[in-house]
């Protein structure tokens, strides 16, 4: 496809989305009403299949749709782990009945999801998880502890990994369930992060029940299903993951569904977009360096050039993947590469931001009112949005599988290097040494 035909196709898509928005967007709708329209139209998750509330578009086209919604000035699609992870995983592994049960509530933002994977003794070695599910008639009874559960405190459902057979090798005895978070025995304790927010939680599960027909992908097949989720997590995060980022929370707990949709746009403008990455974009950092004179520092100019270059490499890699996938090919390990590239970009942005802002980078605001006060008190020298991004930059190199784990996967599965020695191989989980 030539550049001209591609841009015509892009313009057609933009025109189609814009015309739909002109007809359907109304800031006076509640978030629930707006997301119902958007979700049922296929524009909330345009990369999903047409038969399951999508439009069957490519990732790049999906990003274009989200940008068009943003530029138009309408509230974006429901964000969070439902649209990013649970929905795509259910489309791949769920039964027709499960797709009917879960997908519409995800695309219309009715239900929010969290990811109940990590445990105190199982992060990188996720297959070593200890949470167990025992069969009781048509149900399973779950006991165990999860940790780092992002958004667990406002979720309706959880993607739960639990051990359903301890007598087989650790990867083989795990099942992936859709767990109802609103039931006795689910105890959620917030954990405060460096940014001052409490985005993630410890989740304690005591005699919690999950029906057998909520097992996604079949009994003891959870490792394969979890890997699908992780693949979507890596590629979604590596792509910037910003498409659906809005200030409104999906689900019944957050309380945003009943609020006026238009109010969230004002909030988004005040807080700088909610995308996390934009405050430390090359453009923004260059503007800050020009404004405070640090652009005269040759090392800062060099790092700005490095940041620009890394972003361009990521963009060209995406373009290469697009061209390859049109021809039926793929870049092996692209999701891992994309995630590593994002981690690197965020670390460089963090360090560069610190150099540009100097001591002002240490002034952190814990809420919007704080941010406004800081901006006034320092005459704009403090940049709370930038500091927030700097503090958060530690996280993406850990979640979704740490950078070291991405390197291991690339080494072993893509480059074919020798595997790490594994003493657990083939041994029943029950016989493996455990922490604590
Ligand atoms: C902001 C944030 C949000 C998160 N959200 C969620 C969530 O919603 N749901 C969820 O389930 N989890 C979540 N996590 C947890 C995340 O997936 C784990 O933290 C991650 O997988 C690492 O596990 P761990 O913390 O147990 O570290 P460990 O696995 O103990 O690793 C410690 C260190 O050892 C290194 N390491 C471990 N094994 C190897 C190896 N084989 N080779 C080389 N180096 C190795 C790691 O790279 C790391 O540096 C979140 C984490 C963060 C930071």
Mean pLDDT: 90
Shape: globular
Q: Briefly note the structural class of the backbone.
A: alpha+beta
CA-to-CA gap between the ends? 58 Å
How do the SSEs run, as a string of H and E?
HHHHHEEEEEEEHHHHHHHH
Query: How many strands appear in the DSSP assignment?
Result: 7
Helix percent reads: 40-55%
Estimate what percentage of residues fall within beta strands.
5-15%
Low-confidence stretches: 1-8, 240-245, 270-277
Which helices and strands appear, and what pairs or packs with what?
Blueprint: H1 3-24, H2 31-41, H3 59-72, H4 81-93, H5 96-107, E1 113-116, E2 132-136, E3 139-147, E4 157-163, E5 174-180, E6 186-191, E7 200-211, H6 222-238, H7 261-271, H8 282-292, H9 298-326, H10 334-357, H11 368-377, H12 384-392, H13 403-414
Parallel strand pairs: 1-4
Antiparallel strand pairs: 2-3, 3-7, 4-5, 6-7
Helix pairs in contact: 1-3, 4-5, 4-6, 6-10, 8-9, 8-10, 9-10, 10-12, 10-13
Bound molecules: flavin-adenine dinucleotide.
Characterization of this structure:
The protein is globular and about 65 Å long. The chain has helices at 3-24, 31-41, 59-72, 81-93, 96-107, 222-238, 261-271, 282-292, 298-326, 334-357, 368-377, 384-392, 403-414; strands spanning 113-116, 132-136, 139-147, 157-163, 174-180, 186-191, 200-211. It is built from 13 helices and seven strands. The protein has a four-stranded antiparallel sheet, with no helix packed on it. Strands 1-4-5 form a three-stranded mixed sheet. By secondary structure, the protein is of the alpha+beta class. The longest helix is centred in the C-terminal third of the chain and has 29 residues, at 298-326. Helix 1 packs across helix 3 (59-72), helix 8 (282-292) runs antiparallel to helix 9 (298-326) and helix 9 packs antiparallel against helix 10. A hairpin with an 8-residue loop joins strand 6 (186-191) and strand 7 (200-211). Flavin-adenine dinucleotide binds at residues 114-115, 117-118, 123-124, 148-150, 200, 395, 398-399, 401-402, 404-405, 408, 420.
